[in-house]
Amino acid sequence: MIREGPVGCAGAGNASGWMQDAEFLLFLQHFKRQVKPIVDQKCLLLLDNHASHISIQAIDFCKENGVVLLSFPPHCTHKLQPLDRAVFGPFKKMINYATDNWIRNHPGRTITI
């Protein structure tokens, strides 16, 4: 899925298709390489309260590397979810638009990654 991604991008997956503790720790390591937080100059990472975000390994990694975790409460309104409003919502809208357009222009063919 990252074959033609930007230089330095990272990806991970597992059989379930859902984020798990190990993949989140890989994300945190990638985040640290990109953002370069340190204990004296912390950075804030906003999370959506997914179970993978609260593993002991992830919390310890963040404490040791100057990453402050802030998790939104579960089932809160979309107005309190900045990523849903500014990133995931627009991204989903564009993916749906591109997919619909491709299907219209390629009738009978199956879309792939």
TrEMBL record:
<protein>
    <recommendedName>
        <fullName>DDE-1 domain-containing protein</fullName>
    </recommendedName>
</protein>
<dbReference type="InterPro" id="IPR050863">
    <property type="entry name" value="CenT-Element_Derived"/>
</dbReference>
<dbReference type="GO" id="GO:0005634">
    <property type="term" value="C:nucleus"/>
</dbReference>
<dbReference type="Pfam" id="PF03184">
    <property type="entry name" value="DDE_1"/>
</dbReference>
<dbReference type="InterPro" id="IPR036397">
    <property type="entry name" value="RNaseH_sf"/>
</dbReference>
<dbReference type="GO" id="GO:0003677">
    <property type="term" value="F:DNA binding"/>
</dbReference>
<feature type="domain" description="DDE-1">
    <location>
        <begin position="14"/>
        <end position="103"/>
    </location>
</feature>
<dbReference type="InterPro" id="IPR004875">
    <property type="entry name" value="DDE_SF_endonuclease_dom"/>
</dbReference>
